[in-house]
């Protein structure tokens, strides 16, 4: 009997050791993310059917994924429309491969956005792609498999507070003018003001605490249990949630001890691992040494908006990526698939352009750190150490000065070599009165030409601290 007792204790101790061995330090956990620098965001759900239009009215403000709230669509009407949701052209392998070919290292998908519609097999609500839509399938499972096949880290976006269909969910109040010119706007605005943003009595048949306990917590458990390794949990729009409720959600993360989270679970007591500036690239003066990732759209909407043709050029997108990397951040670039599950052609074209540039210049992006020198007028600078522990600078040239001279006034470490990253041709350089000058006669590629500069020895990383980065959602 005593022998059996010691055997049980030994098994328990070994089990605890195995569990602790799985948990990495913060730096170990963040290593892949800091090296990745580039990821894909996907906003997809039944809102794609509306395309930013409600009964002939173009949504007046905001991303198309907000149409239910901004247009004040009745809950039952929204549910009835979702019955026709049938993304027959959804191809998880195409999504994952498109990310890989563009040079992206991870992918984050909206498993449940603010309308509460789950793209996965959930047992706690009928409001999901299997039971509430014509499609009748789990969209997350094939995507998890495709990401694993193509070596893409998988992340889940989950709206933990807002839910406009599952009763009890929180609602960010938006005035009727942000949707369409409803003749009853005054009455509706008064109602939403009195009901914490809710516009339909069906939304208030349960309490927020019931929503957290009966929907949010169990759904996050399902996501972290049923789809293999999940690398990122991306919370959004923390509102109405208290510390106790946030703790319940955070405790579920123990199912995947090395998961990375952002700062949108609840502020300020749940900072997560990464800051999340949205639709903007921080200035250098905003940097504070913390890990950060800026999420941005290709046009003006996260979800598919049929009439938004204001697409950013491939040049802007590539230069955004370089700019972000030069400040030590990650770029999470969004795709809003069409109702049939296919990517808009404009997005596909831009992903291909980015991929072509990355194929030749990815060394200047992956595993780099922020520019350790002063900013330059002609482009951006990233840095890393090579195998010999020498500092390497990557000079991404956007605008070549007329005389072809690229000056770095504060570069005091001796230069060992300078070559074009694409092609390897030598670039002439000389010691100037202050720093170094590099001579480039012409740009050798689209969007940005990269010069790889190897130094003799190391230069110190620039230390950023004490700044106040604007982080969080715009809506």
TrEMBL record:
GO CC aspect terms: lysosome
Matching Gene3D superfamilies: Glycosidases (3.20.20.80), Golgi alpha-mannosidase II (2.60.40.1180)
The enzyme's E.C. designation: 3.2.1.51
Keywords for the protein's UniProt record, in alphabetical order: Glycosidase, Hydrolase, Signal
One example GO MF annotation: alpha-L-fucosidase activity
Domain of life: Bacteria
Occurrences of domain Glycoside hydrolase family 29 N-terminal (ranges): 22-363
Catalytic class of the enzyme: hydrolase
Residue numbers marked as site, May be important for catalysis: 295
Biological process annotations from GO: fucose metabolic process; glycoside catabolic process
Keyword Signal carried by entry: yes
InterPro entries found in the cross-reference section: FUC_metazoa-typ (IPR016286), GH (IPR017853), Glyco_hydro_29 (IPR000933), Glyco_hydro_29_N (IPR057739), Glyco_hydro_b (IPR013780)
Family that this chain belongs to: Belongs to the glycosyl hydrolase 29 family.
Free-text function comment from the UniProt entry: Alpha-L-fucosidase is responsible for hydrolyzing the alpha-1,6-linked fucose joined to the reducing-end N-acetylglucosamine of the carbohydrate moieties of glycoproteins.
Protein's name in the database: alpha-L-fucosidase
Biological source species: Pseudopedobacter saltans (strain ATCC 51119 / DSM 12145 / JCM 21818 / CCUG 39354 / LMG 10337 / NBRC 100064 / NCIMB 13643) (Pedobacter saltans)
Lineage of source species: Bacteria, Pseudomonadati, Bacteroidota, Sphingobacteriia, Sphingobacteriales
């Amino acid at each position: 009997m005593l022998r059996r007792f010691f055997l049980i204790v030994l098994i328990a101790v070994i089990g605890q050791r195995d569990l602790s061995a799985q948990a990495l330090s913060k730096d170990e956990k963040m290593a892949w993310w800091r090296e990745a620098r580039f990821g894909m965001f996907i906003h997809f759900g039944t809102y794609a059917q509306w395309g930013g239009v409600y009964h002939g009215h173009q949504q007046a403000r905001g991303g198309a994924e907000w149409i239910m709230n901004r247009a004040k669509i009745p809950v039952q009407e929204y549910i009835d429309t979702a019955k026709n949701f049938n993304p027959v052209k959804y191809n998880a392998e195409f999504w994952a491969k498109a990310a890989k070919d563009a040079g992206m290292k991870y992918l984050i998908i909206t498993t449940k956005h603010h309308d509460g519609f789950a793209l996965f097999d959930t047992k706690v609500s009928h409001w999901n792609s299997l039971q509430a839509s014509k499609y009748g399938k789990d969209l997350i499972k094939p995507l998890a498999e495709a990401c694993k096949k193509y070596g893409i880290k998988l992340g889940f976006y989950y709206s933990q507070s807002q839910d406009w269909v599952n009763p009890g969910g929180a609602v960010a109040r938006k005035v009727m003018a942000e949707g369409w010119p409803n003749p009853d706007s005054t009455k509706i605005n008064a109602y939403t003001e009195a009901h914490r943003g809710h516009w339909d009595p069906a939304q208030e048949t349960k309490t927020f605490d019931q929503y957290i306990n009966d929907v949010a917590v169990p759904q996050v458990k399902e996501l972290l249990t049923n789809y293999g390794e999940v690398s990122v949990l991306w919370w959004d729009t923390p509102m109405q949630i208290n510390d106790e409720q946030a703790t319940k959600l955070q405790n579920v993360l123990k199912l995947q001890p090395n998961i990375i989270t952002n700062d949108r679970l609840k502020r300020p007591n749940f900072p997560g691992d990464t800051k999340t500036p949205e639709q903007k690239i921080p200035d250098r003066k905003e940097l504070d040494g913390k890990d950060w990732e800026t999420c941005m759209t290709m046009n003006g909407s996260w979800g598919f908006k049929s009439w938004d043709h204001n697409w950013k050029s491939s040049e802007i997108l590539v230069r955004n990526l370089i700019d972000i990397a030069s400040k030590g951040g990650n770029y999470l670039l969004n795709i809003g698939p069409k109702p049939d599950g296919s990517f808009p052609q404009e997005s596909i074209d831009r992903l291909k352009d980015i991929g072509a540039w990355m194929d030749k210049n990815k060394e200047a992006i992956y595993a780099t750190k922020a520019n350790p020198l002063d900013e330059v007028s002609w482009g951006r600078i990233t840095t890393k150490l090579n195998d010999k522990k020498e500092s390497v600078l990557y000079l991404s040239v956007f605008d070549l000065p007329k005389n072809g001279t690229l000056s770095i006034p504060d570069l005091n470490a001796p230069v060992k070599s300078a070559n074009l990253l694409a092609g390897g041709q030598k670039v002439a350089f000389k010691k100037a009165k202050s720093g170094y000058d590099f001579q480039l006669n012409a740009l050798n590629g689209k969007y940005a030409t990269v010069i790889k500069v190897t130094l003799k020895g190391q230069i110190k990383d620039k230390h950023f601290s004490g700044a106040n980065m604007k982080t969080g959602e715009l809506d």
